[in-house]
Specification:
Elements lengths: L15 H39 L6 E7 L5 E8 L5 E8 L7 E8 L4 E9 L7 E3 L2 E4 L5 E5 L2 E5 L4
Antiparallel strand pairs: 1-2, 1-6, 2-5, 3-4, 3-7, 7-8, 8-9
């Protein structure tokens, strides 16, 4: 009874022999593509997290022009909301109708700000705030420029 003495050796004969090999090859290819994709995502996440870590202190620094105590001129404000000091803070500006001014501070301690009255006149009675560009160095020695809402790294000074 049984199989009648027939012996199978090698691969499965018949129309499914090629099909199984093809499915295994496709599965292997898909696994390789998924692995490469996961590695690409991991590398991207790593690069983005390193960039965010480098910019974490710099992202806590802001600068703006606001109405001074008097109604005449705007005040430049640089605020360091980080937990470490910032260094070599510089902001310059002016309007075509106002003299150029400069703000320079060697260090702004953590959690503090500096305020300087500028010669920039208040344009309208409703004017309360205007973004201000500022350059500075973080506690790790990296140089940054904040210009309105954007923050970008500056190349190291020579």
């Amino acid at each position: 009874m049984g199989w009648g003495g027939a012996v199978c050796s090698g691969s499965v004969a018949g129309p499914w022999a090629f099909g199984w090999d093809a499915l295994v090859a496709i599965g292997t290819l898909l696994a390789a593509v998924a692995t490469a994709g996961a590695a690409g995502v991991a590398a991207t996440v790593y690069v983005v997290s390193r960039r965010e870590a480098r910019a974490s202190q710099a992202s806590m620094v802001s600068a703006w022009l606001e109405r001074a105590a008097g109604p005449e001129n705007l005040m430049a404000v640089v605020q360091n909301n980080s937990s470490q000091p910032i260094f070599d803070v510089v902001s310059t500006g002016g309007l075509p109708e106002a003299p150029t001014w400069s703000l320079a501070q060697r260090v702004i301690p953590a959690g503090e700000s500096i305020r300087v009255v500028t010669p920039i006149p208040v344009v309208s009675p409703d004017e309360q705030y205007r973004p201000l560009a500022v350059a500075f160095r973080d506690a790790a020695g990296r140089r940054w420029v904040r210009d309105g809402g954007s923050l970008r790294a500056r190349p190291p000074a020579d």
